[in-house]
Write a structure and sequence with these properties.
InterPro entries (chain A): Spore_V_R, SpoVR-like_C, SpoVR_N, Ycgb-like
Organism (chain B): Nitrincola tibetensis
Shape of chain A: globular
Shape of chain B: flat
Helix content of chain A: 40-55%
CATH architecture of the largest domain in chain B: 3-Layer(aba) Sandwich
Number of strands of chain B: 13
Radius of gyration of chain B: 39 Å
Largest interface: A-B, 98 and 62 residues
Oligomer: heterodimer
Pfam families (chain A): SpoVR (PF04293), SpoVR_C (PF24755)
Protein name (chain B): UPF0229 protein DN062_10440
Structural class of chain A: alpha/beta
CATH superfamily of the largest domain in chain B: von Willebrand factor, type A domain
Strand content of chain A: 5-15%
Family (chain B): Belongs to the UPF0229 family.
Number of domains of chain B: 3
């Protein structure tokens, strides 16, 4: 793109609305030239106080009321006021139009960076990536949140704040287990949701009546006792409770449903953090450099930009006091840049590792990668030996039964493959969160609910599990059991709520 | 296509509800922290907000997560010296690994404490929760002598300075419309007719009719114009009424013994007690005046500085202070206008023959005038004669009179609470 009269957009670091519009127009034009497909943008300028508000209601512009958001707010406020923490430069919401918050305190350069990062980077990722396309409905989320907020407020008026809060507490404890991992959910729309609500109540009651019918159907049909309910283990615990808990009232089921739907909405974000941030960083970097190449911004602007950019993608080494795991911005950004490098300037090593990528059109290849992967598969597919060397990645094997740690792989020829697989595994949600599923309900007996924790690498459950079980017990209304089992089927630990003393001990050391 | 929206003026404080719910949920914890603060901190600090710490484990939201143990394989960046196959001892404190799950402890100020600030108002709310001023209601119903003028709509009579122009013009306009309604309809009809006729071909017949029509139109318009633009009848005045309001003024009279037996530490305790009472009254009354009366053998009204810090010696005669208090009330604070609170602090010492005199003074002169009389005895020793004298009064005037003993600074707040606890709890 050649501009006939290259002209600086601004030399000041103060922003105003005309300048924001100008930057957005220019960045939008460049993004389009690069083939980024985005939702329309809704850029909102807010104060730091409003940013804290947004922050503490899980980033959404509106949300139902709950004490835990208040706790989050109090903590954020405290940290911010003490200067212990800067606020995020931006919050962007996967909605159509895509809402991005810009803080008024930011300089013009930061605003431009945020527009490039959020309004074109994240936005195009939300629109393009297969997880977001399948699992979330960008056009409906705001309406749905409004519906949820109003519904919960009505429930509070009718049943009391405490009652509602108790159910929400329990749902939040199980929120990570309120998603369908493999089935595509029905898209949510607030209007249908309201309509369906009533018919669902009636249907549900009928279904429950059948399940909990105590009138014996056939005398002497002992086999029925042997089959489990559900026949296949159910991974979506909240869904199972919503549909099957014997004692819940219909509004309580509705609350479970709301929390479940929100969990489902956030599910793709949890699985694409590296890619999403990497993609956004790659594009703010590319777009702003293009702006510079066209002569629309000056050196001072670029210096400020590069300073922010490099602190965002800084990765402290493992022994650094600030180290807190791998920075998803760093990993993602470098992987995206690496893909472009492999396409444009492949080395022999790249040709061997990425034959299909080397020398291909970088825009098409990058677009393909963005659309069709999540963190786990993306790393599995694209982490190159060069990047492993650049970041000096190494793999530690930690077996709790041994007093020593073992370095299993480092950045060398023999280690690349293992590091790549381990790192990919690290981003597998299935490994990160304990795999707990609904195993059985004693339908004809004491109505107790049994969950099974399928142990991965012998990792036990954390200390708060008993507390979670109490919440589960509140929702289910009858005894709840949780068994940790090894792949060979032996049960290593049982939890119960309410606890019965003899079952609490460890069965198998 | 992008839209840029300025939301800076939108509602802030969206999190207020959530914050309040959080505070309510952890009320017990916050109350403990507040009580702790009151005992620990110097009393002047109470006028600020407070820092509240809650053990993190008490407010964490439980989820299922992996605990320590089992086999984990993790990738770290920034390798320097390791090569494949290296083995080393597991670092003591996680050494850059694990999921970063903090260990919970219930004491000590560590990272495990969830700490946040509450504002002064919230602080005092927690501090004075469950407390109430005795006899407040009685005062509000009876003796209302001050009035407030409030707006009460509009009236058609009033003095010119209360004239409400917009309302008056509105009324005038309405009157004009109402009175000219029919004629306006006729005018409209006539105009239409004229307009239609004007379009037709000009004949003698039409010209004649036009003329007739125009004449009647003119007539009508004239009569409409005759309606006065504004009439006496339209005028509207702001209506103000006088509403009696309960007195929002209070006077707090601090009476303290400054005889030789009152050490500085005893006076400090008394001061804390007085300040607590002051803060508490401040939440109930708009305006509070303070009167300080100190006494040894002689009673004297002094300013705050002198009250708390000058030191005198000598014996103790309490009755002088009480009669001075009664005089002050009589001359400056009429009970019909003022809510009167008296707080007396002493180490309990009194000249033997004086106590019965004090009792009489209280019964006859003071208690009928005051809202509440609180007596604190700051002593570690056995009760003295004043205490026993007052005990008799307490039985007689249990509504208005209260007494408690303070032995150490930690008692001040509990004692204060006891004095002002909701009445039902005291009786039970």
């Amino acid at each position: 793109m050649s501009t006939s009269s290259p002209k600086l957009l601004s030399v000041s670091s103060e922003w105003n609305f005309e300048l924001l519009e100008a930057f957005d127009r220019e960045l939008g034009r460049i993004a389009k030239d690069f083939g980024l497909d985005t939702y329309p943008n809704q850029i909102e300028i807010i104060t730091s106080e409003q940013m804290m508000d947004a922050y503490s209601s899980i980033g959404m512009p509106l949300n139902y009321n709950h004490w835990s958001f208040g706790k989050q707010f109090v903590e954020t406020e405290q940290n911010y006021c003490r200067g212990r923490m800067g606020l995020a430069y931006e919050i962007v919401i996967n909605s159509d139009p895509c809402i991005a918050y810009l803080m008024e305190e930011n300089t013009l350069c930061m605003q431009a960076l945020v527009i490039a990062h959020a309004c074109y980077g994240h936005n195009s990722f939300f629109k393009g990536n297969y997880l977001f396309r399948t699992w979330t409905d960008a056009s409906a989320i705001i309406d749905y949140l409004l519906f949820a907020k109003n519904y919960i407020r009505e429930c509070e008026e009718r049943h009391g704040v405490e009652e509602v809060e108790a159910i929400l507490d329990s749902c939040h404890a199980l929120m990570n287990y309120g998603v369908n991992r493999y089935k595509r959910p029905r898209p949510l729309t607030a209007a249908e949701e309201r309509e369906r609500q009533r018919s669902r109540e009636a249907y549900m009651q009928q279904h429950l009546n059948e399940l909990w019918n105590t009138i014996p159907k056939k005398e002497g049909h002992a086999d029925a006792q042997q089959t489990r309910y559900p026949v296949e283990p159910e991974e979506n615990i909240l869904y199972f409770i919503e549909k099957n808990a014997p004692l819940l009232e219909s509004w309580q089921r509705e609350l479970i449903r709301i929390v479940r739907k929100l969990a489902q909405y956030f599910y793709p974000q949890k699985q694409t953090q590296v890619m999403n941030e990497g993609w956004a960083c790659f594009w703010h970097h590319t777009l702003l450099h293009q702006l510079y190449d066209e002569g629309r911004v000056d050196d001072g602007f670029m210096m400020e930009f590069l300073h922010s950019h490099s602190s965002v993608v800084y990765q402290p080494p493992f022994d650094h006091p600030h180290f807190s795991g791998i920075n998803p911005y760093t990993l993602g950004y470098h992987m995206m840049q690496d893909i472009r490098r492999i396409c444009e300037n492949p080395t022999d090593e790249d040709r061997e590792w990425f034959p299909q990528l080397a020398g291909s059109d970088w825009q098409a290849s990058l677009d393909y990668a963005m659309r069709n992967f999540k963190d786990e598969s993306f790393i599995q597919q694209y982490l190159s030996p060069k990047l492993i060397r650049d970041l000096k990645l190494f793999n530690i094997h930690d077996d709790a039964s041994l007093p020593i740690l073992k370095v299993k792989a480092i950045h060398n020829e023999t280690g690349y493959q293992r590091i790549r697989e381990t790192l990919a595994g690290q981003y597998n949600l299935g490994n990160r969160e304990p795999n707990i599923q609904v195993y059985n309900v004693n339908v004809r007996g004491d109505r107790s609910l049994t969950l099974r924790h399928y142990m991965h690498n012998k990792q036990p459950l954390g200390s708060s599990s008993k507390e979670v079980l109490k919440h589960l017990h509140r929702l289910w209304g009858f005894d709840v059991r949780l068994e940790s089992i090894l792949p060979d089927g032996t049960v290593t630990k049982r939890y119960e709520c309410p606890p019965s003393a003899e079952l609490l001990e460890v069965i198998c050391p | 296509m992008s839209y840029i929206i300025d939301r800076r003026l939108n509602a802030k404080k969206k999190s207020t509800v959530n914050r309040q719910r959080f505070l309510r949920r952890y009320k017990q914890h916050i109350k403990e922290a507040v009580d702790q603060a009151i005992n620990d901190r110097s009393i002047t600090d109470l006028e600020r907000g407070g820092k509240v710490s809650i053990p993190r484990k008490d407010i964490s939201e439980p989820i299922f997560h992996h605990g320590p143990g089992g086999i984990t394989d993790r990738v770290y960046p920034g390798n320097r010296e390791f090569s494949e196959g290296d083995e080393f001892k597991r670092p003591e404190k996680g050494g850059g690994g694990g999921s970063g799950q903090g260990k919970a402890s219930n004491q000590g100020e560590g990272e495990d404490e969830f700490t946040f600030n509450i504002s002064q108002d919230e602080f005092l709310d927690f501090m004075f929760e469950d407390l109430e001023l005795p006899n407040l209601i009685r005062k509000e119903l009876k003796d209302a002598t001050s009035f407030e003028t409030r707006r009460a709509g509009f009236s058609s009579h009033g003095s010119p300075d209360k004239l409400h122009i917009v309302r008056s013009l509105k009324a005038a306009y309405a009157r004009r419309i109402a009175l000219s309604g029919n004629r306006r309809d006729d005018i409209r009809a006539l105009r239409k007719e004229i307009w239609a006729l004007e379009k037709e071909a000009v004949t003698d017949d039409t010209t004649e009719r036009l003329q007739a029509l125009r004449a009647s139109l003119l007539e009508l318009e004239k009569s409409v114009k005759k309606l006065p633009f504004i009439d006496d009848f339209d005028l509207r005045y702001q209506n103000l009424v006088r509403i009696p309001i309960p007195s929002s003024k209070a006077v707090m009279i601090c009476v303290m013994d400054v005889s030789g037996s009152m050490t500085q530490s005893i006076k400090d305790m008394a001061k804390r007690f007085f300040i607590l009472l002051y803060l508490f009254l401040q939440r109930n009354y708009k305006q509070i005046e303070l009167v300080f009366v100190r006494h040894h053998t002689l009673a004297k009204e002094v300013d705050e500085q002198e009250f708390f810090y000058s030191r005198e010696t000598g014996g103790t005669i309490v009755s002088g202070a009480l009669s001075l208090t009664a005089d002050i009330i009589k001359s400056r604070y009429s009970p019909s206008e003022w809510n009167i609170y008296v707080a007396q602090a002493s180490d309990g010492d009194n000249w033997d023959g004086d106590s019965s005199l004090c009792g009489d003074l209280l019964r006859e002169k003071l208690l009928p005038l005051v809202q509440y009389f609180a007596y604190v005895e700051i002593t570690t020793g056995p009760h003295q004669n004043l205490w026993y004298e007052y005990e008799g009064i307490k039985d007689q005037f249990s509504e208005q009179f209260a007494m408690q003993q303070i032995t150490q600074p930690g008692d001040i707040y509990p004692v204060f609470r006891k004095l002002f606890e909701k009445r039902t709890e005291v009786n039970s």
